[in-house]
Automatic annotation (TrEMBL):
InterPro entries from the UniProt entry: GreA/GreB_C_sf (IPR036953), Tscrpt_elong_fac_GreA/B_C (IPR001437), Tscrpt_elong_fac_GreA/B_fam (IPR023459), Tscrpt_elong_fac_GreA/B_N (IPR022691), Tscrpt_elong_fac_GreA/B_N_sf (IPR036805)
Gene3D superfamilies tied to this protein: Transcription elongation factor, GreA/GreB, C-terminal domain (3.10.50.30), Transcription elongation factor, GreA/GreB, N-terminal domain (1.10.287.180)
Signal peptide annotation: none
One Gene Ontology molecular-function label: DNA binding
Keywords: Kinase, Transcription, Transcription regulation, Transferase
Region (Disordered): 25-44, 139-158
Boundaries of every Transcription elongation factor GreA/GreB N-terminal domain copy: 6-69
Ligase is among the record's keywords: no
Keyword Membrane appears in the UniProt entry: no
Name of the protein this chain belongs to: Nucleoside diphosphate kinase regulator
Any one biological process term the GO annotation gives: regulation of DNA-templated transcription elongation
Residue span, Transcription elongation factor GreA/GreB C-terminal domain: 87-153
Amino acid sequence: MAASNLSPAARERLEDELARLREQRSSQALNLREEDPVGDSADQAGLLERAETTAWIDRRIREITDMLTHGESPEAAARREGQLPDGTTVKLRFSDGEEETMRVVAFADETTEDDVTALTADSPLGRALIGKSKGDTITYRTPRGEQSAKVLSLNLPR
């Protein structure tokens, strides 16, 4: 197995999702086997929808298995160069004076402990932090336009 670029929380999240998907897959397969192949078009539409769901589950199982085996998502592997590692913490002062502490996470919906906001490395803000250090001012694009912030601290994981 490759060295993992996934945090313990991200790995646990993936393992939990994989277990749920495998359970869903078993249930879907059983339901598909029990389907009566003869029926009206509404029955066939339902069967087609369940088959598509099963195909999606199979793809996601392969994707998660690959992430767990290689220690990173396919997207992370493609962007490995020039990216903040999972677990990096940064404290920023935004242009409105608000200060916020953030932690780089592998997945946008991954939660962090305490009052730390999750930040993905491939977000505009995450990309703006590449190569920066304490005291630097960064700019990044948002749907509301260009924003700026001052880096108060940036700590790479140990």
